[in-house]
Amino acid sequence: MIDLNNSKRVIIIGGGAAGMAASVFLAKAGCSVQLYEKNEKLGKKLYITGKGRCNFTNACAEEEFLSHVVTNPRFLYSAFAGFTNHDAIRFFEELGLRTKVERGNRAFPASDHSSDVIRALERQMRSSGVQIFLNTEVKALLAVSDDPAVLEDKEAKQTGYAVKDFSAEYSAEKTEQNMSEQRISGVRLSDGREIRGDAVIVATGGLSYPSTGSTGDGYRFAEQFSIPVTACRPSLVPLLTAEDDIPLLQGLSLKNVILSVRYGKKGKKTFSEFGEMLFTHEGISGPLVLSASAVIGSSLQESGTLPAQIDLKPALTEEQLDARILREFENGKNKALKNVIASLLPAKMRPIVMERAEITPDKPVHDITREERQRLIASIKAFSLTICAQGSYREAVITQGGVSVKAVDPKTMESKAVPGLYFIGEVLDLDAVTGGFNLQIAWSTAHAAAEAISGNSAGEW
Ligand SMILES: Cc1cc2nc3c(=O)[nH]c(=O)nc-3n(C[C@H](O)[C@H](O)[C@H](O)COP(=O)(O)OP(=O)(O)OC[C@H]3O[C@@H](n4cnc5c(N)ncnc54)[C@H](O)[C@@H]3O)c2cc1C
Questions:
Q1: Within 13 Å and on the Cβ side, how many CA atoms surround 435?
Q2: Residue 106: CB within 6 Å of ligand 1?
Q3: Closest CA to ligand 1's atom 31
Q4: Is the model's pLDDT at 254 over the cut of 80?
Q5: What Å distances lie between residue 46 and 57, 165, 175, 241, 439, CA to CA?
């Protein structure tokens, strides 16, 4: 049911994925929507997603989806059920975007241009009357209170409500009771103007890629009201390694390898996945490494370093690899080791593997002992690394941590402490692995908030 006379005034802070989607849902449900974006254009981060192609969701089976969400998957259950990955594909198709699904169920615009996703959303926003304010930064949230202690300004005396800006005076002493007496009333812009609204949606993103506008403003807004924010760290990010020989491998990419990382209390958990990775000037990166970074972050912070291994020949057992090496040795009897292992390893890897196995590269293979061969096998099957840090927010795909989901209603995304205040998208303590799952978090949470605010089925796409 769509009630076009729904006159709720909704303020959205942030014109990224979540904010744009929420504005479309709300405007369709008849709300009057104002969206404030501090950048000069909408969707700056969306533009760079999926290497400019925007992997906007993952078309996996719905039952499987939440298993790809790393942090707080259960919180997402209701919002995802209300707007699934398949709803997202339908939604974009109905906005006129042709879509396609690739390997690993990754959904993209058929054009391979993220700009088409932004254009589809923006076109719908404008045609449905969303008021878009670019180059406009929200500085603080405004709240009303019926607590006589805060009935202090003129407006309060006239209306019986006090309008309060907590940005300056947020303090830890604020009592639970005080908070329960507040209701959101609007926002203050950086030029000092105050905008009134019935609901405010914080869609300000996290801290990663700050150049796109994600500078953690949403966490500060939450803290105005003592809404807890869990510790943040970069995730889906390259990892730094301690060994001196790793930078020598810079630029080398490996396919069909297994990366294993021990983490958790006393190293009891193991991340172990098959795929692609690459070496950088200070460590490792690529799909396998980004996935590992999403699960090992807190352990790494606690312990400082974590042990990792690369199996460079996962298709062969140690015995099979030994047999293969013996065959190569047999074929090149009088040759030096460095020439014989050419068929086994990429060029950049060979000197390092031989060094780690403590065998001189020029040694003729017929002089290589059994022990040396075993050391060679060990450095190929368990090429060891020490992970000593994560990359920075500048290169992190997402932020782990954020507005605590304990403080937010999972059905509506509304703050439990401050009625009328909603958090959606990456600002929440939710994150997933790569593959389109993070943008789906933005779409689903946007939809949940829009539906709750409008009181309508915002999901009829
Ligand atoms: C390089 C890269 C590639 C990625 N690729 C993918 C991918 O292919 N698939 C996928 O699922 N995910 C991908 N992600 C993650 C995905 O982009 C995010 O999860 C998603 O953009 C989060 O949406 P959001 O709306 O919550 O935040 P954002 O998209 O970050 O939007 C927040 C917006 O709020 C604005 N803002 C902030 N503070 C204020 C303020 N005070 N006043 C006004 N405006 C404000 C910002 O300028 C920004 O425009 C990628 C991320 C990066 C960095």
A1: 22
A2: no
A3: 16
A4: yes
A5: 12, 31, 39, 30, 9
Instruction: Answer whether 54's CB lies under 8 Å from 108's CB.
Output: yes
Determine the atom of ligand 1 nearest the C-alpha atom of 221.
41
Measured over the CA atoms of residue 265, residue 267, residue 271 and residue 277, the dihedral's sign is: positive
Q: How far is the CA of 49 from the centre of ligand 1 (A)?
A: 9
Do 229 and 399 contact (CB within 8 A), yes or no?
Answer: no
- The yes-or-no verdict on residue 177 having pLDDT over 70 is no
- Residue 147: the pLDDT is 53
Q: Is 137 in the pocket of ligand 1 (CB under 6 A)?
A: yes
Cβ(421)–Cβ(415) under 8 Å?
Answer: yes
- 174 pLDDT higher than 50: no
Query: What average pLDDT score do residues 150-159 get?
Result: 39
pLDDT value, residue 7: 76
Residue pair 214/28 in contact (Cβ under 8 Å)? The answer is: no
Atom of ligand 1 nearest to the CA of 209: 53
Residue 18 Cα: closest atom of ligand 1: 25
Q: Are 27 and 95 within 8 A, CB to CB?
A: no
Q: Is the pLDDT of residue 61 over 60?
A: yes
Instruction: Please tell me the distance from the alpha carbon of residue 300 to that of residue 27, in angstroms, as a whole number.
Output: 44
pTM score over 0.85: yes
CA of 203 to the centre of ligand 1 (A): 9
Are residues 53 and 118 in contact, defined by beta-carbon separation less than 8 angstroms?
A: no
Least confident of 154-168, 202-216, 310-324, 368-382: 154-168
Rounded Cα distance between 388 and 301, Å, is 9
95: exposed, middle or buried (Cβ count in 10 Å: 0-12, 13-18, 19+) = middle
Nearest to 220 by CA among 140, 298, 153, 147: 140
